[in-house]
Amino acid sequence: MTPYSPPPALPRVWEPLLQVIQSHPRYEEPFVRCINELFYGAGPLRVHERHYIALMAASRHRCSFMLNLFEREFEAAGGDLGWLKGLKFCKNSKLIVLDEMNRLLAHQPWLCLADTIQRLTKNESGPHLSLQELVHAAIVLSHTHALCSFAEAIGAVPIEISSSERQSMASRCEWLARDKENTGARRKGEIEDLLKRMNRLRAVAADGSDERGKETFERLHEQPEDGGSGGDSPTSAGDGSLLQNFQRFTGNLSFTYVDFQSRSDSTKTFKIHEFSWDQHGYVILEDLYNEVTGKLDEKFNLTQNLTYKTMGQYEDVDTSAYRMAVWNYIQALYGIRHDDYDYSEVNTMLSREMKTFIKTVACFPHRVTDSLRNGVMVDFKASEKVHVMLMIMESRLQAALLYFTRALTNYYASDRRSAMR
């Protein structure tokens, strides 16, 4: 038997995230391995370039925590400090041209198309990247966007801030640390109601009709109460000075998420039975960047299947219906439809308040507020809240990579057709 070998430790700046993730040791190890490989391991991009790309990504979601983290890591990796003045001061033109893909993957990944890949890799008159560099950059961008969702959801605070600043932000973390057993603000019957809903789902045979599933999928986007709302978060307040700070590393902050069903473009629903992570996305990334692809796959599978069979104070609970509702709802927000799933289960499992929380964390993380946090999962254990936020992070990340890898596939097909002419 091969002796157990823990993954190398991440730099200290990651501690605020790891302290939360440690409530799930089975997830923590593959997370550390993936982050180590993606940001510090072998790859076509140099380490300081990766951190700069991550700075660009963190700016899209105005996430002060991730911006602080990657500024420090960029400096530690020997990056040119002049670049930290902003993207226009970056002397690597290949990074500058990634700003378009940064915007798309952060907010409307369905607009990442074969033409996007073409412009970034075949620009003969200007800067361009190799396919391997582009794949590495796209994963860094997408993973950082997802990390912003997680960091804002848990109210992560940089370890270097003063004690007075930390104290003023402490209330943001109280909700996460408040287990069901020690809270006086318990919502009566929250868990009991969820258990009844689960039992009803098991008792009633699923319709299975494709038309019914399609109708319910589209209706998920017709409920204004689950839209992103609320003010800016305490660490990402929308005053002019901070907004200017975030605009250093990206352009056009007015470009943001739009409801998939309300979009003005002609993009069709992404059907998983036509292009899936297991059969397509994983395969194409494995060919171009195999060092990290398996680690991403491990995280996706573990997060979806992670369970301790508990919900609040109840034990021996089958939580699969709830976990699937969270995962599939997030991907539905990005126009991804699982044809074998009855989307009426989303409305059965997730309250309006919970859908608002999930959508805000996934699509508008800078808008997460204490009131949003305090309004959901009141009866959940702290570790169960963390698990939900891990699912938001990973489901969102997978959605972005599905669109990116489909664009790569279409790019390959277009390139082959051009070569045959």
UniProtKB/TrEMBL annotation:
Citing just one GO molecular function, the answer is: oxidoreductase activity, acting on peroxide as acceptor
Q: Which domain of life is it from?
A: Eukaryota
Q: Please give the residue ranges the record annotates as the region Disordered.
A: 221-241
InterPro entries, alphabetically?
AhpD-like, Sestrin
Report the sequence similarity comment from the record: Belongs to the sestrin family.
According to the UniProt entry, which residue ranges have a biased composition of type Polar residues?
A: 232-241
Identification of the protein by name = Sestrin
Tell me a GO cellular component: cytoplasm
Which GO biological process annotations does it have? cellular response to L-leucine; cellular response to leucine starvation; negative regulation of TORC1 signaling; positive regulation of macroautophagy; regulation of response to reactive oxygen species
User: Keywords for this entry?
Assistant: Cytoplasm
User: Any idea where this protein resides?
Assistant: Cytoplasm
Could you tell me which Pfam families the record lists for this protein? Answer: PA26
PANTHER family to which the protein is assigned, alphabetical: P53 REGULATED PA26 NUCLEAR PROTEIN SESTRIN, SESTRIN HOMOLOG
For whether the record's keyword set contains Cytoplasm, the answer is yes
Can the keyword tRNA processing be found in this entry's annotation? Answer: no
